[in-house]
Amino acid sequence: MDKITECWIIENSGVCLFNHSIESKIDEILFSGFLSGIRTFLEEIGEKKLEKLELGNSKLIFYNLDKYGLFIVLKSPKKTKDKFLEKKIIEVQHSFINLFEDHLIEHQKKGFPFNTDDFKDFRIELEENIFKENIEKNISSWLKSI
Fold first, then answer.
1. Mean pLDDT across the stretch 69-78?
2. CA dihedral (93, 78, 26, 36) positive or negative
3. In the chain, which ranges are E strands?
4. In angstroms, rounded to a whole number, what is the distance separating the alpha carbons of residues 28 and 42?
5. Where are the domains of the chain?
6. Contact 6, 20 (CB under 8 A)
7. Cβ-Cβ contacts under 8 Å for 22 (sequence gap 6 or more)
8. For the CA atoms of 32, 103, 85, 87, what is the dihedral angle to 10 degrees?
9. Is the pLDDT of residue 141 over 60?
10. What is the chain's mean pLDDT, rounded?
């Protein structure tokens, strides 16, 4: 079954602006710094931008929002199809930009740090549109096991 278990939106500096999980919760400060460090290291040694990373039974897919100095990361089980993840990360990117582009542009002009509370409502967008099918499948699986 194709599914997404977590979504992060991270500044290139490593600051996590938004994190949402439908399963477990990873320390977002530690994890976003780790991902940012890996990306920076790869760029320093001349590699292209990080697009996918497999860790244990999980797969991470990355989408760079260079215009805003951000990147998006989706986590899924390793068996999740890449095409599904690519489709979903584009949906996340479009939704995030549609909701917050004015805020992102204003932030760039003024150069102030982001307030992560400004992005907390993105959780609703993810649950209602992007993660909805995952949540419904999880509930259906849970009901079958009773």
1. 92
2. negative
3. 6-11, 16-21, 52-55, 58-65, 70-77
4. 21
5. 6-145
6. yes
7. 4, 5, 6, 131, 134, 135, 138
8. -170
9. no
10. 83
Joined together, the tokens standing for residue 144 give 């079958």
Phi, psi of 47 (to 5 degrees): -80, 160
Confidence of residue 50 (pLDDT cuts 50, 70, 90): confident
15: amino acid identity, one letter: V
* Class level of CATH domain 6-145: alpha beta
The label of the residue with tokens 């993660």 reads 131
63 pLDDT more than 90: yes
Among residues 121, 6, 134, the alpha carbon closest in space to that of 62 is found at 6
Task: Report in angstroms the alpha-carbon separations of 113 from 8, 64, 75, 103, 108.
Answer: 18, 19, 26, 12, 9
Total-model pTM: 0.82
